[in-house]
Design a protein that fits this description.
Elements: H1 5-13, H2 19-24, H3 34-47, H4 52-55, H5 65-70, H6 74-81, E1 89-92, H7 99-105, E2 110-114, H8 118-130, E3 136-139, H9 143-146, E4 155-158, H10 180-190, E5 193-198, H11 204-210, E6 214-222, E7 225-234, E8 246-252, E9 258-264, H12 265-270, E10 282-286, H13 288-293, H14 296-303, E11 306-307, E12 315-317, E13 326-336, H15 339-348, E14 351-357, H16 363-370, E15 373-384, E16 390-397
Parallel strand pairs: 1-2, 1-4, 2-3, 4-5, 6-8, 14-15
Antiparallel strand pairs: 5-7, 6-7, 8-9, 10-12, 10-13, 11-12, 13-16, 15-16
Helix pairs in contact: 6-7
């Protein structure tokens, strides 16, 4: 579609308005499709932070708000772009809003975008044309049914829908659509490689068992929030690749820095962990991608830090390790936890950021007992040491 001057004026004028109120005021704008425009405003609000390039282009169309909610961010899409080559012919089996298709198209020879919903395809055609992506072929079909008619490709990309009946969110891979474990053998017959974007809730070990041939896993976080798990599956990967799988933990920080920690599952399996007898000068908390990957032993050995407890996932060292992939704190004090401490510590620390790691009480329970308000520059970690002792660690962020 082409935006009219009147539509653009409405979008600019009401960009920050209450959307429910706008819908109720539809009768004031008889010449405009207010539900459509409100949907566009809602979608644009969803992408403002995660897709700044698309947000800046006012001629784009969004088929639904949920498409904007679920699409990849610009940072994660650009990261995935590195995983393909200029000679690749890629098929996106779950086109959706088309973010991944667009960014892949900037790197590969051709992209086949397949989507069964007509309104998504119409929006995609408009958006790809607006963005100058002339090497994307939009196909309005069911991707599984269309496979026999697809031209030869070297890479399949798939992001199975994670919503079931009644728009209920699902997490089990077999419950998603398409059913990737069932479809995978057919895809690997047609192309030597499959890239699968999965939920950040996906269990790594279970998923590896369901997707034989996986050679690498990319766990992508934005501002320390895990966004997606990307499985790189190869035809020649075989069925016994678990120990050799490479895992890449990526975190895009708020400053734009890219933190990457890579290891192999075999390396983690063989690592021998040493526990700290006490809390030392510095405290470390791995970022969300490292935690998701389960690299609890490897990260300690690689950076020369010691773990406080097998289940605490906090680390310590006497010397500062600035390259550690996560948050780093200078330790100011360590308190043995007891009821008396809870009653008195609020006088010393009236405001703090409290976190619980392997501790019997929740943050809310600790705040209620200690009267410590949220905020400030002080960080308190309630945790358990390798000796079993319960402690509060006070520190400030480096």
């Amino acid at each position: 579609m082409k935006w009219t001057t009147e539509q653009k004026h409405f979008m600019h004028e009401h960009a920050a308005d209450d959307l429910t109120h706008l819908l109720l005021s539809a009768s004031r704008y008889p010449n405009l499709d207010i539900p459509f425009l409100v949907n566009q405003l809602a979608a644009r609000r969803q992408i403002r932070e995660k897709l700044p390039t698309w947000f800046a282009e006012e001629d784009l169309v969004f088929p639904s708000k949920i498409a904007a909610e679920q699409c990849s961010s610009e940072q994660t899409a650009m990261y995935k772009q590195r995983l393909v080559s200029p000679d690749d012919r890629l098929c996106d089996l779950t086109g959706g809003l088309g973010i991944d298709s667009f960014y892949f198209s900037r790197q590969v020879r051709i992209v086949y975008y397949i989507e069964r919903f007509t309104e998504y395809c119409e929006a995609a055609r408009n958006n790809f044309q607006t963005l100058g992506a002339d090497n994307i072929v939009v196909i309005n079909e069911d991707s599984v049914s269309y496979l026999p008619h697809l031209p030869a490709v070297s890479v399949f990309y798939i992001d199975p829908a994670r919503r079931g009946e009644g728009n209920k969110r699902v997490y089990a891979l077999a419950d998603c659509e398409p059913d990737l474990p069932a479809l995978l053998p057919k895809l690997l017959e047609l192309a030597p490689r499959v890239l699968a974007k999965l939920s950040p809730m996906a269990d790594i070990q279970q998923t590896l068992a369901l997707l034989p041939g996986t050679v690498a896993i990319h766990i992508l976080s934005v501002r320390n929030e895990c966004k997606e798990v990307l499985m790189d599956i190869r035809r020649e990967g075989g069925k016994d690749t678990e120990n050799g799988v490479q895992v890449h933990c990526v975190n895009f920080t708020s400053s734009g820095k890219e933190e990457i920690f890579s290891f192999s599952l075999e390396e983690e399996r063989q690592a021998v962990l040493h526990f700290a007898p006490s809390v030392l000068s510095f405290l470390y908390e791995p970022n969300a991608s490292v935690m998701k990957a389960g690299a609890f032993k490897t990260v300690a050995l690689r950076f020369g830090v010691e773990k406080l407890h097998a289940s605490s996932h906090l680390y310590t060292s006497a010397e500062l390790k600035m390259d550690f992939p996560g948050r780093i704190f200078a330790v100011d004090a360590v308190y043995t936890f007891n009821n008396r401490l809870c009653k008195e510590i609020g006088k010393e620390i009236p405001k703090a950021n409290i976190a619980v790691r392997n501790f019997p009480l929740s943050v809310d329970e600790l705040r209620k007992k200690s009267k410590i308000k949220e905020g400030g520059d002080v960080f308190l970690f309630a945790t358990t040491l390798s000796s079993g002792e319960k402690v509060w660690i006070r520190g400030h962020k480096i």
